[in-house]
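FAQ

Q: What does a record look like?
A: Structure on top, sequence underneath. For example:
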């Protein structure tokens, strides 16, 4: 189901076939996770969609829009990003090409929060231009319900406010998905508790007290491969249900 592995005679989508584009980023995720964590996660869940629903998977977009330094815990090597204008154009042209080959059901499976508004812009442009097309933009963390998130926080003792970029959930997912790439031994014994100042607005340049020594803004103290497997299975189920629900409806006329 990997489009990149197909020959040209194989690329003849049926009317109900849909294509998934995994979207990630290349940026620091603390000292314990690989730079490509977001892309790895997107590709993992794209494979589940292929297994569950017969989706065709396009090659991943591994470069995203830069995450503000305050959410990375400071400025560290490894950010390889593209501008919002370039990113929007890239996604628009990928979707347009897929639609040109006959795909009308298109899924952008995203794992980097700063990509979202640009993905939406590309989707609007393509669906305005291509008749009978539908684009679903889905972030893996959006498909699990509030009850699951609350239960996870209660079970682990990690508050949801302490569990974002490179925190417990993301770290656990990468430990499960790519155990060879994760290096949990690089985490401090407390999982990273420097307590930088967290601000919801943005300041440039970022204030010094929003930075950390190792890029750990949130706690990964309770991260584990077993927890990652548990979360991944829940996400995969919910993701399949969400995609099935949205694409079972008739396409726009």
């Amino acid at each position: 189901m990997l489009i990149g592995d197909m020959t040209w005679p194989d690329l003849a989508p049926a009317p109900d076939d849909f294509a998934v584009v995994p979207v990630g980023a290349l940026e620091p995720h603390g000292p314990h996770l690989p730079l490509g964590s977001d892309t790895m996660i997107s590709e993992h869940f794209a494979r589940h969609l292929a297994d569950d629903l017969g989706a065709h998977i396009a090659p991943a977009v591994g470069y995203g829009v830069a995450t503000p330094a305050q959410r990375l815990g400071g400025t560290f090597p490894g950010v390889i990003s593209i501008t919002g204008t370039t990113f929007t154009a890239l996604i628009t042209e990928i979707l347009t090409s897929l639609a040109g080959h006959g795909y009308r059901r298109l899924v952008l499976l995203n794992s980097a929060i700063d990509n979202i508004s640009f993905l939406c812009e590309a989707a609007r442009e393509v669906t305005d231009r291509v008749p009978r097309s539908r684009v679903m933009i889905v972030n893996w963390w959006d498909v699990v319900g509030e009850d699951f998130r609350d239960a996870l926080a209660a079970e682990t003792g990690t508050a949801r406010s302490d569990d974002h970029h490179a925190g417990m959930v993301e770290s656990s997912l990468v430990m499960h998905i790519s155990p060879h790439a994760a290096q949990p031994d690089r985490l401090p014994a407390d999982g990273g508790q420097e307590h930088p100042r967290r601000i919801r607005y943005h300041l440039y340049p970022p204030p010094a007290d929003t930075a950390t020594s190792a890029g750990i803004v949130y706690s990964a103290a309770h991260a584990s491969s077993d927890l990652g497997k548990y979360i991944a299975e829940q996400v995969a189920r919910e993701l399949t249900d969400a995609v099935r629900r949205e694409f079972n409806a008739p396409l726009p006329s």
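Q: Is there anything notable about this one?
A: The first strand starts at residue 18 and ends at 23.
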